[in-house]
Amino acid sequence: MRTTSVGVVRIPTKGPGDVAGLLGMIEQGEIDPKAILAILGKTEGNGGVNDFTREYAVAALCTALAPHVGLEPHRVEQRIAFVMSGGTEGVLSPHITVFTRKSIAQAPAGLADKRLSIGMAQTRDFLPEELGRSAQIEETAKAVVSAMADAGITEPKDVHFVQIKCPLLTSDRVEAASARGNTTVTTSAYSSMAYSRGASALGVAVALGEIEEGIRDQDVLRRFELFSKVASTSAGIELIHNVVIVLGNSASSASPFEIGHAVMHDAIDAAAVIEALASVGLKAGSTANTGRELVNIFAKAEASPNGNVRGFRHTMLEDTDISATRHARAAVGGLIGGLAGSGAVYVSGGAEHQGPPGGGPVAAIVRVADDSD
Amino acid sequence: MRTTSVGVVRIPTKGPGDVAGLLGMIEQGEIDPKAILAILGKTEGNGGVNDFTREYAVAALCTALAPHVGLEPHRVEQRIAFVMSGGTEGVLSPHITVFTRKSIAQAPAGLADKRLSIGMAQTRDFLPEELGRSAQIEETAKAVVSAMADAGITEPKDVHFVQIKCPLLTSDRVEAASARGNTTVTTSAYSSMAYSRGASALGVAVALGEIEEGIRDQDVLRRFELFSKVASTSAGIELIHNVVIVLGNSASSASPFEIGHAVMHDAIDAAAVIEALASVGLKAGSTANTGRELVNIFAKAEASPNGNVRGFRHTMLEDTDISATRHARAAVGGLIGGLAGSGAVYVSGGAEHQGPPGGGPVAAIVRVADDSD
Amino acid sequence: MRTTSVGVVRIPTKGPGDVAGLLGMIEQGEIDPKAILAILGKTEGNGGVNDFTREYAVAALCTALAPHVGLEPHRVEQRIAFVMSGGTEGVLSPHITVFTRKSIAQAPAGLADKRLSIGMAQTRDFLPEELGRSAQIEETAKAVVSAMADAGITEPKDVHFVQIKCPLLTSDRVEAASARGNTTVTTSAYSSMAYSRGASALGVAVALGEIEEGIRDQDVLRRFELFSKVASTSAGIELIHNVVIVLGNSASSASPFEIGHAVMHDAIDAAAVIEALASVGLKAGSTANTGRELVNIFAKAEASPNGNVRGFRHTMLEDTDISATRHARAAVGGLIGGLAGSGAVYVSGGAEHQGPPGGGPVAAIVRVADDSD
Amino acid sequence: MRTTSVGVVRIPTKGPGDVAGLLGMIEQGEIDPKAILAILGKTEGNGGVNDFTREYAVAALCTALAPHVGLEPHRVEQRIAFVMSGGTEGVLSPHITVFTRKSIAQAPAGLADKRLSIGMAQTRDFLPEELGRSAQIEETAKAVVSAMADAGITEPKDVHFVQIKCPLLTSDRVEAASARGNTTVTTSAYSSMAYSRGASALGVAVALGEIEEGIRDQDVLRRFELFSKVASTSAGIELIHNVVIVLGNSASSASPFEIGHAVMHDAIDAAAVIEALASVGLKAGSTANTGRELVNIFAKAEASPNGNVRGFRHTMLEDTDISATRHARAAVGGLIGGLAGSGAVYVSGGAEHQGPPGGGPVAAIVRVADDSD
Known about the structure:
Four copies of one chain form a homotetramer. By secondary structure, chain A is of the alpha+beta class. Chain A folds into three domains: about 1-105, CATH 3.30.1330.170; about 110-255, CATH 3.30.1330.180; about 255-370, CATH 3.30.1330.160. Helix content of chain A is about 25%, strand content about 25%. In chain A, a hairpin with a 2-residue loop joins strand 11 and strand 12 (about 310-315). The model of chain A has no long low-confidence stretch (mean pLDDT about 95). Chains in contact: A-B, A-C, A-D, B-C, B-D, C-D.
C-alpha cells in the first residue's frame, strides 16, 4: 500500500545566501515547508576545507525556513538534513534540490512501478581520531540500515543513491585528539576529507552487502577495489557526525518521480551517463523524452588515483594550484552537463570508495507524467 | 594533381621537457624530422601569463630537433611552428601533435576525396600598442591568405581549423608603449591575452569572408556576434608576432588523413562534438568505426561571457581563485574527452571571436584506411 | 569641549560566521551594542569577486546584533557600517574591530591632546556605468566632507584614515548598463574592483585637498601620481553605494585612544611602519611601550604597478594562479605583522590611488593609559 | 693556512630560462665558469609538485654553461649543484646566487677572521619507500659530514646554512614502490615534499649534533621539537637523491665574504632577522653599513603547524586555494624583504624540522671591504 509521497524540486540560486527561490515556491504553495526532509545543494566555494559557502548556505536556509517550520533557526537542522557540496567548477551551476515527504491517505490509482522514496538517519558524534577508520565505517553502516527502513525500502537493489555528509579534521580537532594521547588518521585537514568520505562510503557498501564486513583501518584509501556503487559522501567542517540520506524506489511511495543509476568506470565514461538516463527512460541530449522530464542528476567525480584515464596521464593529482577535486568536478560536470543538457546538476568531488577508482556513481531522478499526477 | 603528403602523429608527453617520444619515432623512422612543419601541444601549466611550460616545451623541442634538422637550437623555430597551449585541466592529457609535409613524386591511386593539407605564414612583429586592435586583425588576415596558398587550399569552405599563436602584453611591453606616448588596449597582462586572441580570430574571419571587413578597434571583445567558425588562437609570452597555421582538405594532398569540423554553440554542446566526429566518418563513443581512426580533436573553450549556459548561471567569470579559461578547458575537455574516448585532445582556452559567445570550433582529424595507404 | 567618547576593540574570530566573541563582550558589559557605529573586519576568503565570507560575516553580525539594537536583522546595516575586507593571507589573522561612539555629559579631566574620533556618511546608489568614473569620485568627496563633520574633525591634517566600502561590477550589472545603451568602465568583475577602489580613493584626495579637483574619467587607474595618503577602499559585491568612515583625532573627543599614520612608499617600506607606530608613541617590536598599547594597525597593500619593488622585479601582476591583491596582502601583512608583533592587523588589498604606486597608507590606533581612563 | 677563495654573486633573472645575466658576467670575466660550485635560485613557479620552472631553469643553466665548462649539457649537473627553490610570492624576486670556489696560492694578508667557505656532497639514490624515513635521515647525515670536510669546516658552530635538495614522490614512484610490495610514507605527491624535507633536515641535525641519533620513522613530521637551526631543504621532482651544500666560515678560506645566522622562532620574528643581519655586521634598514654590503639572505618559512602565530589563528593550513608553503613564503619574504631592503632574497618554503615549528633558519652573507680585497 502506498502511504507516502515524495517530491523533488530543483531551484537555481544566485549566491550561497540566496533563499528567494525557495521562499517564492513556499509562498506560492508549491512547496510545503513542513514536508521538507532534505535539501541537497551545490554552492560556489572551492569545495575544500575553507569553503564557507556551505555553512553560509545552511545558515541562510535555516534562518529562512525557521518561521515556516516553527523552530528557532539553530534547531532547523535537527529537522531537515542539509547537504551542501561546494564547488561549481566549469559549467556546473549553483542550485538546491529540495526533497519533501508526506503521508498520504489515498494513493493515486494506476501506479504500477516502485516510485521515489527517501529516508534519513544519523550516526552519533565522532571523535576526531575515529574519522577515516573502522568506527566511522561501522556507525555509518548502521545508519544506512535505519535510513532504508525510514524510506520503506526493503531490498538493497532498490537503493539508487546514498548521500552522506561527514566531518573533517581541523587543526583544533587534531590537537584535541593529540591532547588525549591519540593520533588522527592524518594531520592534514585537506587529506582528512578524503579519509572521512572514504570510510563513510565503505559503510554504505557494508550495509548494502556490496562488500563483506571486516574492513580494517588500513583498507581505507588503500584498497580501492572495495567500493559502493551508490554512495556519495561529502565532507564539511560544520558537523561532527554523519548524516545519511537514502534515495531509492519503493512500493510504498506514490511519488510522481522515479530514480535510477549507473556507475561511471572512469571520468570520461559517457556510456554510464547515458545508461543512467536510460534507466529512468530518458535519451541523452534529446528533448523528445515524451512524458518524462529530468529533475536532476547526482554524481560523484574523482581524479583517477593511478594518474591515468584510459591510458593517458592526467595531471590532477600533482597540481599544487588547483585541488584534484576541483579538476574532477569540472571535467565530469562538463560531460554530464553536455549529456543532460544542463549544468545545474549535482556533481560532487572526492569519490573515494564511491564507485571504482577514478569513477563514481551517477543517479538520475525523473518526473513521470502520470495521468494520475 | 596530388603533389604533397601530410602526416599527423599524436605523442603523449611525461612533462613539458619530455621529448623522448618524439625522438623515439624519429629514430625508428616513423617521423622524418626534416618534414616537420608544425607541432601543436598541450602542456601542463596554468595556460595564463606565467605559464612557462610552453616556452620550456618549445626550448626542449628545439634542442632535441636541432641536430636532426641541421640548425642551431635557436634557429629551429624559424623552420618549424610550435604552438603550445597551456592547461591540461581535468581529464586533459599532455601531448604533442606533429604535422609533417613532404613533396611526393607520385600520388597513390584511387584517392577520390580531398585530403588533409597544412599551410603556414607569419605576420610581422607587432608593437605592444597594436595588440588587440585593427592592425593585428589586418595583418592576421593577410597571413591567413598566405597560409591557405601555402596549403594548396583555394576555397574557404575547405579550411577546417586555423591555429594562431599570438603575443600578449607584459609589464615591460606596456611600459615601452607608454614611453612612446601610446596606451595599450589594457594594462593587465591577463586581459591582454583575451584581446590578442580576439583580434587574431577576427583576422581569420575577415580572411575567410565569415564577416565583412572594416572591423574597428572598439569591436574587439565587444561585438561577440562577429566570429570565425574555424579560428583557434592562443596567446603566449614568447613571441611578438602572429604565427598562422591553416588546416584543411585539398585536392593537391595525397595524405592518408582527413579533417572536418563543427561549431559548439555553448560549452555543453554535445551535438556539435558528435557532428564534428561524424564529419570525418566517426561515431561518438563507438569503437566500431571500421577503417577510420581518430587522431586528435582540436577545440576552443570559453566561459560564456553573459554568465549563463543554457539559462543556468555559471561562476567561471567571477572566480578569483581559478581563471575562467582553466574552468572552461576543464569542462569542455571533460565533454570532448567523454565523447572521443580520450583526454589526449587539444582543447585550448580563450575562444573570443572563435565561434559564437560561449562556444567555439571543434575539428577532428581522422586516419583513413586506404588500400593505398 | 569634549562631547563624545569613542571606543575601539579588536576581537579575533574563528570563522566568518563567528560572533561569539562580540556577544561575549556585550554580555559582560564591555561593549554597549547601541553605541556601535562601525565594524571593520578581516575575513578569510580570497578577497576577490567571489569572496562570500564578507557577506556571510555581515549577515552573521546583523543577525547577532539585531535583538541588541532592537532592529530586524536586515535593518541593522542601516545603523551600523560593516566593512569586511576579505583575505587573510600569510600571517594575517581573522578578526573584527568594533568602533563605538557615545555622547558624554562630562569629559575626564586632564586630556591635553586631540583624541580618536569617528564619523560616517554614505553616497547615493551608483549606476554600474558610474563606477570607476568621475561620478563616483565626486559623490565620494561629498561624503567624506559629511563624515568629517560627523566626526567633529575640522582640519584635514587630523584625518588619519578614511575607510570606504565600494561596489563592484558583476555580469548582471554590466548587462544592465548595456541594456541601457551604456558601457561600463570594464566588463571584468575583477578589474572593476580596482576601478571602484581607485575612484573612491580619488574622492578622498579631492575632499582633503590632497589633489586638485577636476579629475577626469581617464585619470582613474592611469595617473597614479594622484593619490590620497589616508584613503583605504575595499570593493564588495554586497552594496551599490559607497560607505565612508573617517577616523582621526578631534578636540571634541574624550576617547582613551589616539590615531596616527604614515605612508608606505613601497611594499617593503619598513621605515614607514615604524614611523606610523612612532606617531602614536610606540616602538616597533618592543614590549616596553609603557602606558601605550597597540589596538590595531590599518594598512593598504598593492603590487607595484610598474612590476618592480626597489629595482627588483616582482611577479605578482603576472601570476594567473594567485591574484596580485592576495600576494600583496600576504607580503605587507608579513612586514607589518613582524613589526607590530601580531598578525591580527587590518591589511587590505588593492591600493589604487591610496598612497603612491606600490605603497599605501598605514595607520595605528593606540590606547593611552590616562589616569583618568 | 688559507688555501681557497669562495665567491658569491646574486644575479636577477627575467624568467626561469633567463641566463643572460650569468653569461654576461662570464664574458666580462667577473665569474670564472670553471670555478662555479653551486647555484641557488628562486624561480617563479608555484613551488609545488608541478613547478616546472625549477627544472626549466636548471636545463637552461646547463645548456648555457656546457660550452664554458667543456661538458655536454646533461653532464653539467654532475659538476655543479643546482638548487632551485620555486615560489616568488609577494615581493620576492626571481634571481640566482652563484657560488664559486678556487684554490689560491697565496692568501691576502691581514685576514683575521674565518671567512665564507662552501662544501658539497651527495647521497646515493633513494627508493621511493625510503623517502621521509630513517634511511633518508641517515644517508643525509653522512653527506653533511662529507660536505663539511669538503668545506674545510671542522666545528659544527661554524656551519651557518646547510642547503639540501631532495626528491619527492610522484604517482609513478608510488606505483613502483607498490609494485615491489612496499608502501610509501604517503601517496600524495604534495605531502611527500614535506616528508622528504623533514627527513633531510633531521639528517642535518644529527650530523651537527643538534639532536641525538636514533630518530625513528614515526618521528618525522610528528616530533617537531627535533630540528636543525641551519638546515634548509627543498624538494624537487627532478632528482632521486639528496644534494647537500654546506655554507660556513673557515680559517682555510680567503674569501672576501662572511656568513652568519639566527633562528626565527615564528613567522613574524623580526628580531631574529635583525640578529642575523647583525651577526655579519649589518643594521636592518640602514644604508650606513660602512664597509659591509649584504649579498643575500637565505631563510626558510613555514606555516606554524599548530595553526597559530603568537596566539592569533592563521588560515594557511586550511586554505584549499593557495598552498601553505606559498602563504608562508609570501609573509616571511615580506618581513625579510622589508628589513633587508630588497625582495631578491632566498626564502624557501616548507621548514619541517628546520628551526622550531612555525619558524626557520635565517642566514646572511655579507661582503667585507678589506683593504686586501
